[in-house]
Amino acid sequence: MIAIEAEPYPFEFDPAHTALLIIDMQRDFLEPGGFGAMLGNDVSQLRRTIEPNQRLLAAWRDAGLMVMHTREGHRPDLADLPPAKKIRGRSATCIGDAGPMGRILVRGEPGHDIIPELYPAPGEPVIDKPGKGAFFATDLHAILQNGGITRLVVTGVTTEVCVNTTVREANDRGYDCFVPSDCVGSYFPEFQEMGLKMIKAQGGIFGWVGRSEDVIAALKQ
Ligand code: C5J
Fold this sequence. Notes:
221 residues, alpha/beta, 12 strands, 20% strand, globular
């Protein structure tokens, strides 16, 4: 057990029982020509997480620990897309429609895939999730349990949506979650700040918040 500097207090890092869970680092959310950018979002707010994630992922792989990736998206026939999710926002272009990188949030389309900088290595599980939380309607919990995982380092995008939802779901299933603030991003700076505060408030009600460099240092110990 290695104590990692964190808020609200040090996180007890137990590498053999900890997985790195990288949430939705997908082209449509992060790339300048993607769906997020088409909606007018400032993708640089998300892209600043790429390099810290690359460093953490490299250290994690070097240590031979479990890495998992997620992608938000739906079946090409949209049979798993709730009508409420499809029409939410009253946007002219919605999930399943043609977007700048193929059909929006549809599995198999270029924009749905993970950015090349963080592409999963062979053997690293990729969880395709239809919702915001990575535990809902997926086999994530089973894979983690079968791998003896009790703690998660959660990174990715966006801080207040899929990262927060996943951390809350994990918390209710008994996992301890550490979130490196430099490896998670939001299009909205105020949501980045509040999203992290919500995790670490009230004695770490959902988990711990720290920095990836401290995790990397611990991995090298
Ligand atoms: C994620 C979203 N990944 N913001 N999705 O956070 O819709």
